[in-house]
Amino acid sequence: MEKKLNKTENKTVNYITIFDFITTFFKNYKVIKKVFIIFLILGIIYAIIMPKKYKSSSMVVAEINTNEVFNTVNRFNVLKDLGFNFGNTSATSLSPDAYPKIIKSRDVLLPVIHDRFKITGKDSTILMDYLIDKNFYYYLKKVTIKLPITIYRLIFPRKKNIAFDDKNNSILILDKNEEYAINILRKKVITVRIDEETGLIIVDVETKEPSLSAQVNKAILESFRKKIQKIYDQKNNENLKFIALQIATAEQDLSQAEQRIIDFVEKNSSPQTITLQLELERLKREVALRTNILNELQLQYALTKIDLKKKEPIVRIVSSPFVPINPSGINKIILIIIFGFMGILIGIVYSVFKLIIEVYSYDPINNKKIEEIKQYFSLHWKKKNKKIE
Asked: What residue range is the signal peptide (predicted)?
């Protein structure tokens, strides 16, 4: 460590050299060693108590029958030319980018958490009960690595859901346990990603039980398939209701057009003039047009009903969930090594911080500030001890 006097400012300027760092590391070798051993022991304990997890993967793809879509769009376009508005008929499929969000949605996961699954060594258990089971490992994390979150939740607790009756079942109402279980599924159990090259949707489920991971993965895919089918069926039902309304209107228009011909013929039993003949031809063309519209609507109604009866799955499973053999996650030896490196790093940071404090303590102004900081912590600690007593 070198000190140099600046004559113009009459101040002592301190420099830290590489030799100062090396000397400090050797002086604090025992401290670094102790911190390393402590973190190494913590890593070993964590590796021992850390539960094994098993990951089951599956792959799905969205199938679209382009011929049916093309024919449906053409049929709607014919009716559009006749003056009917059916909205955006090209939007017959969801974007693949929306599938991960749908898989993790409450509508998909709610039936899954209420389903029963077989667990090794136990009877069939409802998934929600399994997920909210707070064991020793859960409480250990709350007072160690999740201690800041625990303190924050004690000061700022979550707001409770307001209970009310939803007679139309249009709103999904969850209780506290359901919300907690779904959040665990989203954050810790399920991982959904899209392969950019193939467009396949990959669903990973990771739990402590190999068979449970595969069962939950399968249940999620089934719930997801039903949800997608429900979305498409809902769209078809909306079209069906709209077409039925248009058929009723078309029948009324046709009846009125036919009545106008009857009234015209009764008034003009034998139209001889060109004007009357043209008017009669116009009325006949109107009846023919109304008849064509009614036929098109009836055809579309029948085809839409057929589409509803088909109920072909839109989501195809390319790779079914499997029961994993080996546990997933980081290797325990690597985990212990990481803890050891963390201990060494903390020891080095402590040594560097101690060196900087020593350097700045040579300056009277900085030394005074350091003493003030020490006094503050000393007084704070004494007050805390008095409260405890």
From this structure: none
